[in-house]
Amino acid sequence: MKRTLEFVVILLLLNNNLLFAQVSAQLDSNTMLIGDQMNLILSATTSKQSTVLFPTICDTCIEGVEILNKTIDTFSTNEQLVWKQTLRITSFNEGNYTIEPFAIYDQDSNLLGHSNALQLQINTLPIDTSANIKDIKAPLSEPITLKEILNVVMWILLVAIGIGLIIFGIYKFSKRKKTKDISLKSKPTEPAHIIALRDLEQLHQKRLWQNGHIKEYYSLLSEICRTYMYNRWDIAAMEMVNEEIETSLQQIGLEHHIITMVIKDLQACDLAKFAKHNPLPDENAAIYKNMVDFVNNTKETIANNNEIQH
């Protein structure tokens, strides 16, 4: 019997891991309110040459307890190394529970020991049945944060952009439809230049700019010119900006100096209509004469065989 005890002591001395391993388990408290959280700490103290393998514990392996997360830390003390695994736990079931001992091994699968069993009591809030039932508390008021303000501003901008795109789409569609309607409108039987020259003469007789009606004068002058382009070449000039009109006139092959002059005069009309520009009397007369020359220089010519020459 004595030899047997000596043999066991020798084995223990040869295995430092077993000799110096100390395994324990502890809770922050033995009681916890339902839904609260606390730490369950498994610790093992070994020699510095050892590596501790903590048991694999699933989230619901412990009866009545749920594991939220796990962390492992180590620190040295003298010739020993302390290993700690912290389990953050919670519970939603009232009652008394026993946390059974955990088996902890080293890297060579040698059993270092079993932790101690723990008792945990889960309590609920006490209910005073004698008290009157109270209304639910109103939500707490919180100050509006800058982030919330920026979110509201961002949504307002997005809605405004969306509305703007819708309005722009409706405008483009209606403009295209109006242009199409104009192109399908039947043309007058008289030649385009006859109508334009007659309208220009009637405008001249009204003496609008001489009586201070500058905007009305240039509005009618621009309209006569644009209508002539439609009747003469099917150019929907009433719906076009000056750059589009210039491109259309270039495509039908008009001479450069004619195009330059009429575009310049149309721009002058726009300035008087929209920018409240007040041209000098000489400018008024010159622009009118340019419009007349434009019509005469681009009008249709009738050949002897009554065919219209373009």
Account of the 3D structure:
Helices cover 45% and strands 22% of the residues. It is α+β, with helices and mostly antiparallel strands and 310 residues long. A hairpin with a 4-residue loop joins strand 8 and strand 9 (111-114). The chain is built from eight helices and twelve strands. The strands form four sheets. A four-stranded antiparallel β-sheet has the order 1-3-6-5. A three-stranded mixed β-sheet has the order 2-10-7, with no helix packed on it. It has a three-stranded antiparallel β-sheet with strand order 4-8-9, with no helix packed on it. Mean pLDDT is 81; it is low at 7-19 and 303-310.
Tally of separate helices: 8
For the residues shown, what is the average pLDDT? 81
What is the approximate shape? rod-shaped
Radius of gyration: 49 Å
Largest sheet, spatial ordering of strands: 1-3-6-5
Percent helix among the residues? 40-55%
Question: What is the string of SSEs from the N terminus onward?
Answer: HHEEEEEEEEEEHHHHHHEE
- Strand content of the residues, in percent? 15-25%
Would you identify the regions where 5 or more consecutive residues have pLDDT less than 50? 7-19, 303-310
How many DSSP E strands?
12
Structural class: alpha+beta
User: Distance between termini?
Assistant: 134 Å
Main sheet overview: 4 strands, antiparallel
Explain the layout of strands and helices.
Layout: H1 2-14, H2 16-20, E1 22-27, E2 31-33, E3 37-47, E4 52-53, E5 66-77, E6 80-90, E7 95-99, E8 103-106, E9 111-114, E10 118-123, H3 146-184, H4 192-206, H5 214-233, H6 242-251, H7 256-274, H8 281-298, E11 301-302, E12 308-309
Parallel strand pairs: 2-10
Antiparallel strand pairs: 1-3, 3-6, 4-8, 5-6, 7-10, 8-9, 11-12
Helix pairs in contact: 4-5, 4-8, 5-7, 6-7, 7-8
